[in-house]
Write a structure and sequence with these properties.
single chain, alpha+beta, Glutamine Phosphoribosylpyrophosphate, subunit 1, domain 1, Rossmann fold, six-stranded antiparallel sheet, 17% strand, globular
Length: 615
């Protein structure tokens, strides 16, 4: 993995400092052997491990400055200077003139660190969409930071005690959403945030937050031309001078990136797809349609249950926190193919749904929101009480559906989306032990969701949901999934659809161009109708979903691994033993895909423990 790490406020002998640098940087280089560069000063150190393209460092007069990732200045003059003197030097110069205002001028996928070793001060920042993680911990002696929680845990000032609330949040969200982590005292910067450390105290603020311009109207043809131009420039920036390929699931986003990549390079794009021998999960047909349409150099691999068994320990090792998105495994096998072909970077199509309105739940929530158009008095005094007083066992299908609709529509957003949450359906008291529950707050996930939703400066439902998903779906889930899966193979990854210019373009689109009634990503599809194959324009969203539950029903080796893992998890006093027994012995065979998800979550939790904690 590439990344950076370091500290402010900790001093020792030169030999001890060098040993500490080696310990902290090891999690960043263990899979790809990236070369690490270290800068040290008065009780401060900054280490970056990455290829030359993603490494930017500068040191002078007590300043230690480093950036990891692909980063540019929005200001043309500064960008030209950076081309001569280096991004890190220009950032250091501009920081001394403008302070945090210069962060607004950075664009790309990056984290940055500015240390003043003389004053024992630090600035940490991550990019607008949070494509690269940055964790931190404040101790009584100073500030620790790193691109992985493992780098911080390697420092003697760290206190890597497991945060039980983080484990609860993991089961709720299938990952641990920022700013919290799996460890007490460790936090993660959220997208567009920066941290200022001075004299032992920290302050975390936003240097960027999306401003939706929902009433701006422009001719469709003008929007289309700008969008196509932005697609070409963003893919071109991501390619640079690298040997690049792209994931290809057969969806609109990955197919678009594949087609644009071929146009930008003037050569057949190298595309990589994963299939499954499981009905309802395999999208290889659509990937092949896109590959033929754009004449790509196409590569395929069919993941098997045996591959899953082999990959689970590796996936648990590379993720520094419990992580339950099973799509990390097909992403890993894609990256492995690309690495074997000698590529440097894979392009991910992540972000298109969350920028342009492509997730099915957006249409579902729009339908629920229509109930709010009824006069408030009519809803609260007549319709809702009448519907909820109808017995649940009523045999009329229409009545049952009407009751269910009104029950859900009456719940304010974003709580309405929790109706589908797996843990809510089980009831947390049936899942966790009473001993565990005594130490957590079961409503914290809902509070976090509400806080995030309320911070969005948008009037339309679709834009509020999009901004919500920029955090929970992208920064907390999909981006770490792809980055970590690629890390296992030593592959860099970039996300051209999350280019700052495309994000800004999305923020200026009228809401109805994203979700037109229940038509998902209306503008995106119409703008690319002459570019993408018709079959992909009209297909339903799917992606690299792993058929975990189906395979757990049939594959003995995977069944054994799951059973052994969950039975070992019982000893940690987190999950109730009777729930695990029902999950494995009854629930899985009632609904494979539904209950298989919970088995996967708990299995990966146990494997994270096995990899991280020797108990």
């Amino acid at each position: 993995m590439s990344g950076l790490c370091g500290w402010v406020g900790y001093s020792s002998t030169d030999d001890e400092i060098q040993q500490l640098i080696e310990r902290m940087v090891y999690p960043l280089i263990r899979f790809d052997g990236s070369q690490a560069r270290s800068l040290t000063g008065n009780s401060a150190a900054l280490i970056i491990a990455a290829s030359n393209r993603y490494t930017h460092v500068y040191q002078k007069d007590g300043w230690l400055v480093g950036l990891w990732g692909y980063v540019r200045f929005r200001n043309t003059e500064l960008n030209q200077l950076a081309g001569v003197e280096g991004v890190a030097k220009i950032l250091a110069d501009q920081w001394q003139k403008k302070g945090e205002k210069i962060l607004e001028d950075l664009t790309g996928e990056f984290v940055c660190c500015i240390l003043n070793s003389n004053l024992q001060e630090a600035i940490l920042a991550t990019d607008r969409m949070g494509t690269r993680p940055l964790f931190y911990q404040v101790s009584h002696q100073g500030l620790l930071f790193g691109s992985s929680t493992d780098t911080i845990a390697a420092h003697p000032l760290a206190t890597p005690e497991v945060n039980l609330q983080g484990l609860y949040n993991y089961v709720f969200f299938h990952m641990i959403p920022g700013p919290d982590t799996v460890y007490h005292g460790q936090k993660r910067l959220l997208p567009g945030e920066y941290l200022s450390y001075k004299k032992g105290s920290i302050e975390v603020k936003k240097y960027w937050q999306v401003q939706f311009r929902e009433k701006e109207k422009r001719p469709f043809i003008e929007l289309k031309q700008e969008f196509l131009s932005l697609l070409h420039s963003s893919v071109s920036e991501a390619v640079g001078d690298q040997k690049v390929g792209t994931f290809l699931s057969g969806g609109t986003d990955s197919s678009t990136v594949a087609g644009i990549l071929g146009e930008v390079t003037g050569q057949p794009a190298r595309t990589y797809s994963i299939g499954f021998e499981a009905t309802g999960y395999d999208e290889m047909e659509y990937a092949r349609i896109a590959a033929r349409h754009f004449s790509t150099d196409h590569h395929e691999y069919y993941v098997t249950p045996e591959d899953v068994v082999t990959a689970i320990p590796q996936i648990a090792t590379v993720f520094d926190q419990p992580f339950g998105n099973a799509s990390a495994i097909p992403a890993f096998y894609c990256a492995r193919m690309a690495r074997a072909d000698g590529l440097d970077t894979l392009l991910g199509g992540d972000g298109g749904d969350e920028l342009f309105g492509g997730n099915v739940r957006y249409a579902k929530q729009y339908i629920f929101s229509l109930y709010e158009n009824l006069p408030s008095v009519l809803r609260k005094k007549v319709v809702t009480p009448l519907a909820l007083n109808i017995p649940e066992g009523n045999g009329l299908q229409f009545v049952r559906k009407a009751r269910s609709y009104i029950e859900q529509a009456s719940i304010p957003m974003p709580g309405r989306m929790e109706a589908y949450n797996l843990l809510v359906r089980y009831n947390y008291e049936n899942v966790f032990t009473s001993e565990f529950l005594a130490n957590i707050d079961p409503i914290q996930p809902s509070v976090l969701s509400r806080q995030t939703y309320d911070q969005t400066h948008a009037h339309s439902l679709i834009n509020r949901m999009l901004a919500f998903d920029w955090k929970f779906t992208l920064a907390d889930n999909d981006l770490p999934k792809v980055i970590k899966a690629c890390e296992l193979t030593g592959m860099d990854v970039s996300f051209p659809l999350l280019n700052n210019a495309i994000v800004d373009f999305s923020a200026r689109l009228e809401p109805q161009l994203k979700l037109k009634g229940t038509k998902l990503r209306y503008f995106f599809k119409e703008a690319l109708r002459d570019f993408l194959p018709d079959e992909i324009i009209v297909k339903q969203k799917q992606g690299f979903g792993l058929p975990v539950g189906i395979w757990l029903q049939k594959h003995k080796l995977l069944q054994t691994l799951a059973a052994d893992s969950l039975n070992d998890l019982k000893s940690r006093k987190i999950i109730r033993s009777d729930f695990i027994d029902k999950l494995l012995g009854q629930y899985l065979y009632e609904h494979a895909s539904y209950h298989g998800t919970m088995i996967w979550l708990l299995m990966m939790l146990e494997h994270w423990y096995k990899q991280r904690i020797n108990i």
